[in-house]
């Protein structure tokens, strides 16, 4: 086994450019691609020599870094942050539990806040679920009561 | 432009086909695909594709020391890769027949 030879500056610069060009790629694909291109360059240079002319030929065959970058899978978009917990979100959640007859108001208000993208989304979804159950459960009980009265 | 579109979803199976006979390292795979072939835009574009094939578990990689230079990363087709290649080959055969029939009609 022979150790990886030192690359001509031209090849080092190409590999650094490639790594930068893959900045928005899937991290694993980026690391594997750069490592594999490095090995390809080392193998080619071992065959053809490490002078500048050979280095240029190897890089020509590898192609522009932009062409390689065009083939990679973009990194997955980071999950949207849940948002900061604001006093209004807490009040709405508490309101739903303590003053349950106001659940429909809390439900509408929380939906409006969620759609406008302010406050903490996790707490808002919790309030929506809770107030939704209370609101629609209450409506269902009212309907059942009315049916019993009519019957 | 047409070639770029046609390559999509096809070249990966050509790479798998090149690995059917024996595992190969990157430069060797480029030679099997044909250095002047239209399958790759440039030699470097092979590597993102190989990384995806590895993530799909259609190929595995092994580092093997080389007497002539640095260690080589050998790519080997897996059983899942073989199945995917067989499925593609059957589909491709029917597809190309239909395309040829349509173009020559």
Automatic annotation (TrEMBL), chain B:
Protein name (record): Transcription regulator PadR N-terminal domain-containing protein
Organism: Promicromonospora umidemergens
Domain Transcription regulator PadR N-terminal per the UniProt entry, residue ranges: 15-86
Range of residues in the leader sequence: none
Domain of life: Bacteria
């Amino acid at each position: 086994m022979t150790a990886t030879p030192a690359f001509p500056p031209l090849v080092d610069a190409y590999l650094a450019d490639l790594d930068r060009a893959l900045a928005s790629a899937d991290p694993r694909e980026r690391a594997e691609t750069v490592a594999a291109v490095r090995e390809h360059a080392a193998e080619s240079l071992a065959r053809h020599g490490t002078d500048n002319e050979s280095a240029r030929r190897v890089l020509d065959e590898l192609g522009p870094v932009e062409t390689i970058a065009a083939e990679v899978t973009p990194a997955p978009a980071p999950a949207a942050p849940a948002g900061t917990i604001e006093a209004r979100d807490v009040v709405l959640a508490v309101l739903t539990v303590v003053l349950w007859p106001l659940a429909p108001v809390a439900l509408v208000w929380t939906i409006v806040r969620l759609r406008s993208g302010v406050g903490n989304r996790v707490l808002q979804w919790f309030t929506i679920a809770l107030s939704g159950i209370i609101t629609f459960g209450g409506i269902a009980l009212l309907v059942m009561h009315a049916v019993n009265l009519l019957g | 432009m047409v070639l770029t579109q046609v390559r999509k979803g096809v070249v990966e199976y050509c790479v798998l086909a090149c690995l059917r006979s024996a595992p190969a390292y990157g430069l060797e795979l480029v030679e099997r695909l044909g250095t002047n072939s239209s399958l790759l835009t440039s030699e470097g574009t092979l590597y993102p594709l190989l990384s995806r094939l590895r993530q799909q578990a259609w190929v595995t990689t092994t580092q093997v020391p080389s007497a002539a230079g640095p260690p080589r990363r050998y790519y080997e087709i897996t059983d899942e890769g073989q199945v995917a290649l067989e499925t593609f080959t059957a589909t491709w055969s029917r597809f190309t027949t239909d395309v040829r029939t349509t173009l020559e009609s």
